[in-house]
What does this fold into?
Amino acid sequence: MSPLAQSHGEVKDCRGGGRTPFFDLRTPLSSIKGYVEGLLDGVARDQEMRERYLRVIHDKSNHLDYLISNTRKWKYTNFPFIKKL
It folds into this structure.
């Protein structure tokens, strides 16, 4: 099994103990930061490239939103004593 598949399996198995899904939040956040820095630094020089960067930022933001929603569900499922806000 590849390291990526093993990592994905560990995320699926996190309810059983050990790892939490919180580490998955870093990847899309790092991507968003990188693309924003690229825009600010002028790496995307033409309109087409800027639009591509913005689409990536949009997609990664949506993915991050999805992960945060699932993290909340995971938290309340695995730690029922935590009050929902």
User: Anything to note?
Assistant: Residues 22-78 form a domain with the Helix Hairpins fold (CATH 1.10.287.130).
